[in-house]
Amino acid sequence: MNAEIVAVGSEMLTPERVDTNSLYLTGELNTLGVEVVGKYVVGDHVNRLADVVRLALSRSSIVILSGGLGPTEDDLTRDAVAAALGRKLIYHAEIAGLLEQRFARLNRKMAEVNKRQAFVIEGAEILANDRGTAPGQWVEESGSVVMLLPGPPHEMKAMFERQCLPRLARLVPKRVIRTLELRVAGMGESDLDQLIAPVYKKYQNPATTILAGAGDIQIHFRAQCDTVAEADALICEVAGPVELLLGDRIYSRNGESIEAVVGKLLLSRQSSLTVAESCTGGLLGERLTSVPGSSEYFLGGFITYSNALKTAVLGVPPEMLAEHGAVSKPVAEAMAAGARRRAGATHALSITGVAGPGGGTEAKPVGTVYIGLADPSGTEVLHRQVLGDRTRIRMFASQLALDFLRRRLSAPPK
Amino acid sequence: MNAEIVAVGSEMLTPERVDTNSLYLTGELNTLGVEVVGKYVVGDHVNRLADVVRLALSRSSIVILSGGLGPTEDDLTRDAVAAALGRKLIYHAEIAGLLEQRFARLNRKMAEVNKRQAFVIEGAEILANDRGTAPGQWVEESGSVVMLLPGPPHEMKAMFERQCLPRLARLVPKRVIRTLELRVAGMGESDLDQLIAPVYKKYQNPATTILAGAGDIQIHFRAQCDTVAEADALICEVAGPVELLLGDRIYSRNGESIEAVVGKLLLSRQSSLTVAESCTGGLLGERLTSVPGSSEYFLGGFITYSNALKTAVLGVPPEMLAEHGAVSKPVAEAMAAGARRRAGATHALSITGVAGPGGGTEAKPVGTVYIGLADPSGTEVLHRQVLGDRTRIRMFASQLALDFLRRRLSAPPK
User: Structural domain tally of chain B?
Assistant: First the structure.
């Protein structure tokens, strides 16, 4: 079974924007055994959009559109799909009512334009949107289906998962697809590939994909078979040797983020965490608190960007700052120890570094990073040189800190 | 004049890959005054590709394909375009000769499959590829042009720049394109559209595009004319009234982020900033320090996630936390005032809220946010109810805080 995906919106036709909704949708469709054979980006233009929907429907039985469901006159997806299918748009007073209630709950009056969102293609099922105002639509036509989904990724994903996947499961013939995702911290992509390519290159099924972020690599294995047992056996044949080669550099086997893994380790050890951040400016705290329920183990932290705050809040001695500089091993150590004491946490992480683009010196070039880790057994400091721009250096530094803590918490007690 | 861009290759239809060649091509075409009205990604499949080329040619006079010009059986762009135009492919012995020489220079023997690359569409001009083996093709047909370019970005860019741009300059009437970008904080997309649509809807030129993020909206105006003066006048005709309608909700006119705008305002007033974050967990600090040079005005901050830290570090009275709860006006006020005192900054922002998914109550549902702002004149608190998931609520809260400070700093001194 084939699918085609259409991203709608003139802003997606500028030199600055790429459509990423289709990547999520492709992943989900592939998992069902559905292949994506075409993708389109079309501006806010009824006829051009209708042309593309007709073409896609002429050769694929699943067509998914995202975007163009908003309340403005630019939002023409409803009109275009209705035109392509030769159906009418029908006003649903109950949708307008729900939209009005939604605005009322926020103590706001609904703008008149929002009523555009209450028009539904004749014969379509309405897909509830619990994260925004634009309802989606599911339209079947002689064995094919067209889905109209909202453009904002968080709305689109929630709607696809909750409303479309269950409906698709009825349409798509069953084929077993099993996946395994390994996540690895603290290695470069080419080093990793050199290590594991001799294993995975031998196999077409499972397919192996490597995705690299700043200090974070995901390895996806994906096997298609008739039975779960066959697929799992194929995956293990490749993943087993890969896991042995990578050892404890693997931090998760189920798609869990390193923030979540660290959180579970802290919880299981009844430990608590605080952070002291300089060059990352709050990024480490932000990542830790992106996990729901993180207040169970994360107490808070200190963004000691200025030297004065490092001294006043964390007790880093001014002489130490003067002698070694803020980006140094002793300061990273004093920051971690000071934060731990100050917050009364069992564990503390500190980050100090040169994120650039300015501020580098010959001895401490842009990308110099020190990570401190304080726990009941003492304080340790990691020194690394990171390549890249300001954003990558900051992300990489926060990743190093999280992995440093993960290894400490995973190690058998001394 | 309109263009459409086709990326060819099944690997571009996986969940991990996006087509980026089209971004470069869009930028170059826009500079010539050519608008891109459709983009496609098609796998290695002759009929599907030919369909897309026919559709694109039926409505745009410039069609650019990248990829699928290599020597393997997967490389079908030549065949598909020939089929779409109803022309033959003709073997050019002199191209095969050049390819053989190229291999000989590398001391390699050319594989037989490489001869596929010597087939040229009847009537096409050959575009030399000085960075790879695949020659490009330029095919004109009743006033339209189809370009076949190689897929690797460095080959595609060099060929487009050296071979296609000079040819395009002869086809495309000279046009000037001017743009203006307004950024707006603190408004919903539909409220904003209702306010300004009566102005911008009257104009096709400039084209107006609205992009909405969490509490952040970008409005792009784009005018095409014969001269810079005309284009600028057209933009002002629309942007002038829009600016008046939006007033001080506009925070930048040159693409600058709100973090950068706030930073400049702080610098110009020789002021300094600290933050006290609860539900955002460091995000506000992270955003402020994403701006290079932010250490000039940002001193640092306090991630007071636990109540104990709110008391110990910021001096929020335990009785206040017990009586009003951590998510409350008095606590936001005490956090801002405490952070300002503690860091010795002229200004302090605080954020406390319920980011969810858990922790909501009837009185304080998920999305309840209080923002505190302390400065030499005292402390003020903003209360807002934000819709969305944890990520959006946190982003929206940080945006509200930055905008609260921006307005305070922009206001004439009392």
Answer: 3
Beta-carbon separation of A286 and B290 below 8 A: no
Q: Do B39 and A390 touch (CB under 8 A)?
A: no
Tell me which residues of chain A, numbers 215 to 274, contact chain B at a CB-CB cutoff of 8 Å. none
Q: Which of A140, A171, A202 is the last residue of a domain?
A: A171
Q: Which of A12, A154, A285 sits opposite B282 (nearest CB)?
A: A285
Are A277 and B280 an interchain contact pair (Cβ–Cβ within 8 Å)?
no
Confidence bin at A273 (pLDDT 50/70/90):
very high
B219: CATH: 3.30.70.2860
Low-confidence spans in chain B with pLDDT less than 50: none
Residue A212: pLDDT over 80? no
Q: How far is A20 from chain B (nearest CA, A)?
A: 8
> Residue B133's pLDDT is what?
80
Interchain pair A38, B48: CB under 8 A: yes
Query: For the whole model, what pTM was predicted?
Result: 0.77
User: What's A333's DSSP letter?
Assistant: H
Q: Are residues B270 and B406 in the same domain?
A: yes
- Domain containing residue B53: 2-171
How much is the ipTM here?
0.77
